[in-house]
UniProtKB/TrEMBL annotation:
Residues 18-146 form the PLC-beta PH domain. InterPro entries: PLC-beta_PH, PLCB1-4-like_EFh. Residues 147-182 form the Phosphoinositide phospholipase C beta 1-4-like EF-hand domain. This is PLC-beta PH domain-containing protein. It holds the Pfam family PH_14.
Length: 189
């Protein structure tokens, strides 16, 4: 009893580390099961690990807060198409590996009842596995779920500027502030 030391079993939490693969992004196909459409997208995570965002061919960007991600799956536990026609469409080009192993299912929920799934299809099995492991490690990190004040402010700024650039420029223009490419001021010369 006298030899017990306080804090010996304390765990030091590590800040979330975003891997190079997640930061640079990868090409995926996004399957929308409601519309039965497949869209090519580029999937990325910002350098701080706050948001998962994807950009389609029209340069439209969608964001997902990493704290809303509850699970990231690949392999047998992913949601697959039941219809043969749709399954053939998803497996277009017969890319490397089985379709189930190339699928990346991101399960999101704001509460216990409203659960939704985003389904992405990678070109290779290894790519889907790396994304699954790294993204799950990022969304289950305790420090990313419990942010301090400075991190919360940084997260709000990252969301503002990583969302649609045109919206930000329109807001600046409506406030009669400089927007777009701004010339250097006299103080910067």
């Amino acid at each position: 009893m006298a030899s017990a030391q306080p804090g010996v079993h304390a765990l030091k939490l590590q800040p979330p580390a975003v891997s190079y693969t997640l930061r640079t992004g990868s090409n995926f196909m996004k399957w929308d099961e409601d519309l039965s459409t497949v869209t090519p997208v580029t999937l990325r995570v910002d350098q701080h690990g706050f948001y998962l965002h994807w950009t389609d061919q029209n340069k439209d960007t969608e964001l997902l807060d990493v704290t809303l991600i509850k699970d990231v799956r690949t392999g047998r536990s992913t949601k697959t198409a039941k219809e043969a026609k749709l399954r053939e469409l998803l497996d277009a080009g017969n890319l490397v590996g089985r379709l189930e192993n190339r699928m990346l299912t991101v399960v999101t929920a704001s509460d216990l009842v409203n659960i939704s799934q985003l389904i992405f299809i990678a070109s290779q099995e290894d790519e889907a596995k790396v994304w699954s492991e790294d993204l799950f490690a990022l969304c289950s990190n305790l420090l990313s779920l419990n942010l301090n004040r400075e991190q919360s402010l940084l997260k709000a700024i990252v969301r503002l500027f990583s969302s649609d650039r045109k919206r930000v420029e329109n807001a600046l223009e409506s406030c009669r502030l400089p927007y777009g490419r701004v010339r250097k001021g006299f103080w910067e010369e």
